[in-house]
Amino acid sequence: MRRVYLVLGFIFIALGFVGAFLPVLPTTPFLILATTCFARSSPRLENWLLSHPRFGPTLRAWRERGAIPLRAKLLALAGISAGFLLFWIGSAPGPILMASVGTLMLVGLVYVFTRPSA
Question: Where would you find the membrane-spanning parts of this chain (predicted)?
Answer without folding.
Answer: 6-34, 70-90, 96-114
